[in-house]
Amino acid sequence: MSRRGAKPTSAAKLARAPHATRFSVKQRIEHFVIMLLFILLALTGLPQEFFEAGWAQWLISRLGGIDRVRWLHRVAGILFTAGAAEHLGVIIFLALSKRIEPSMIPTKKDFTDAVVTLGHYLGLSEHEARFDRYDYRQKFEYWGLIFGGAIMVVTGLILYFPTLVTRVLPGELIPAAKVAHGSEGLLAFLIVIIWHIYNAHLSPEVFPFDASIFTGKIEVERMKRDHPLEYARLVASGKVAALEQEASAEPPGTDDDRQSP
Fold first, then answer.
1. Distance between CA 226 and CA 237 in Å, rounded?
2. Within its chain, how far is the Cα of 110 from the centroid?
3. Which residues is 21 bridged to in the sheet?
4. Which terminus of the chain, N or C, has less C-beta within 10 A?
5. Considering only 83-87, 126-130, 227-231, 241-245, which range has the smallest mean pLDDT?
6. pLDDT, tens only, 138-157
7. C-alpha angle with apex 18: 223 to 101, nearest 5 degrees?
8. Could you give the CA distance from residue 141 to residue 164 in angstroms, rounded to a whole number?
9. Alpha helices in 50-172 (DSSP H)
């Protein structure tokens, strides 16, 4: 509990530290919507895939029965498809019109960074990779979501319109789509649970929680550590100096924190 005259707490110091904008409002909304849809798709999809398991039958019952579970799954799938199409459409348009830099495109440096990081973790080298705005792990997650989402959307539409599909394509495509849909869904769930949760919550660099995708802000000091190449560009442009000057300006209503006993 804070009191008058107390020294600034770690939280207060953290709040006063200069922060840079890392994610726009649109990016944060997209992440939040995709997160909610992914949770809903997992809650309604995995019980259908493992319907003989006791936990699956319990969950289906709690969600109102199999008909409601299927309806929720299809609605979430349609919304996910619409969101993915909007995201890709906007990104492609902005990239072609040169209004954004395609910073999520994998490059040769990403493979080099992965090898350097592996060698550092194994104790073979003290040298650490210097990342730009997005490192190879974040690009892996992004493109995994893109390609995995494409598989889920295509196979989901095949299962949603089996009669229409088999008018022009072989009937064997339906069970194949069912296997691919269930397997990819399980793979995506495991990747999110193991890979994403570790990087966003359990990794020593961000433990217990990386809130930048929700607040849109990142500490300049953390950017210097985790994204040194992006930090160097901000320094060269003078933005870091402006952020530090803004953060050092007297914040309103913080006299208590600045006074010493």
1. 19
2. 18
3. 217
4. N
5. 241-245
6. 999 999 999 999 999 999 99
7. 45
8. 33
9. 54-62, 66-96, 108-121, 136-160, 162-166
Those residues whose C-beta lies under 8 Å from the C-beta of residue 31, and which sit 6 or more positions away, are 23, 213, 214
Give the pLDDT score at 7.
47
The answer to whether the predicted template modeling score (pTM) of the entire model surpasses 0.70 is yes
For residues 149 and 139, give the distance between their C-alpha atoms in angstroms, rounded to a whole number: 15
Tokens of 120: 């550092």
Round to whole Å and give the CA distance between 139 and 104: 6
Please name the helix (run of DSSP H) or strand (run of DSSP E) that holds residue 103, with its range, or none. none
Looking at the DSSP bridge assignments, the partners of residue 191 are none
Q: What is the pLDDT of residues 218-233, one digit of tens each?
A: 988 889 999 999 999 9
Q: Is 217 helix (H, G, I), strand (E, B) or coil?
A: strand
Higher local confidence (pLDDT), 108 or 7:
108
Rounded Cα distance, 146 and 170, in Å = 27
DSSP state of 203: S
- The Cα 45–Cα 49 span in angstroms is 6
